[in-house]
Structures are given as C-alpha cells and as structure tokens.
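TASK: fixed-backbone design
INPUT:
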C-alpha cells in the first residue's frame, strides 16, 4: 500500500517565468539550501533544446538529520537518511510537466509522481500553480504505512520551503 502526496504551490508569475528558474543553477542551489537538510547539492542540471522543445533534468541530493525523524524511523536507517530527487521537466498541454522520483539511499523507500506547472485558474490572473501528485512506498510489513506518512510529511515541508523561496526570488508572494 502507498501513501498519497498532494501539494499545490502558487506563484504570481506566468508559467514561463517559473519554468525559466528551473534551468538556473544559482536559483536551484538557493532553493535547495532554503529547504534545509545536510549537505544539499544539485548533482546534475541538464538543459536540452530550446523554446517549446526545451527539457530540464534536475537531480538533487540532501540528507535529513535523523534527529528530526521519529525514533522508529531513524532506528531502521544508519545515520542521516540521504535523499536523491530527480525531476524531468518538459512542455505539455498549455504548461509544463515533470515526472519526479525521490529515493532514500539505503532504505526500501521511494516517492514517485508528477509535477504540473500551469497558468492559474483565476480569471485575469497572470499567476501560475505547480500541482504535485505522488505516492510514497515503503514495502515493510506493519511499519511501512507509518514510514510512508513520515516521508510525505517531510517532503510536504520541503515543498513549502521551496515555494516560499521561489516566491521571494520572483519578487512575489501569494
């Protein structure tokens, strides 16, 4: 059984402006640092193509202090859990779409899903929204569901920190 993740980030900037930030290493480094964690790094940034054919691959790595995790979870993993996140962005139907994958090193845990960047649905708004939908999976009998909940909670906190940072960098807040 998997645990669902659903989050929405809102920005007072057009989708094209937000998407342009995803190919800016300085922005991505700052966003990752703002989200916290230990030793945050953008390990890969690959921008290919131009215009409507542009794709962006972002791979980041950071550790979560074991001290902030429930003891049941930290007892199952040696040291601070290292998270590797991959986002593969591309143009799609009136916006942008990314498949994402989050892997926790040395743990039977993963989070996979999609991120959709589209124009805001409010009439007359020049803003945009990123909708994140995913599923955390930890195939451990009895404890898997609880660990999945912790993963979703931690990722949700990270996404909120990234949203605040992006709003600041865009010079907006919603």
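OUTPUT:
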């Amino acid at each position: 059984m998997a645990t669902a993740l659903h989050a929405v980030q809102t920005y007072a900037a057009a989708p094209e402006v937000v998407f342009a930030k995803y190919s800016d290493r300085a922005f991505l480094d700052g966003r990752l640092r703002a989200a916290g964690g230990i030793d945050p790094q953008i390990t890969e940034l690959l921008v290919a193509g131009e215009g409507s054919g542009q794709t962006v691959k972002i791979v980041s790595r950071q550790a979560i202090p074991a001290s902030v995790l429930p003891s049941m979870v930290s007892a199952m993993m040696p040291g601070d859990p290292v998270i590797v996140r991959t986002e593969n962005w591309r143009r799609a139907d009136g916006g942008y779409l990314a498949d994402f994958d989050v892997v926790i090193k040395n743990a039977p845990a993963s989070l996979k899903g999609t991120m959709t960047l589209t124009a805001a649905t409010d009439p007359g708004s020049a803003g945009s929204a990123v909708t994140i939908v995913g599923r955390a999976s930890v195939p451990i009998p009895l404890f898997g569901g609880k660990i999945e909940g912790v993963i979703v909670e931690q990722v949700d906190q990270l996404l909120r920190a990234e949203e605040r940072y992006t709003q600041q960098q865009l010079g907006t807040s919603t």
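COMMENT: The chain is about 30% helix and 40% strand.
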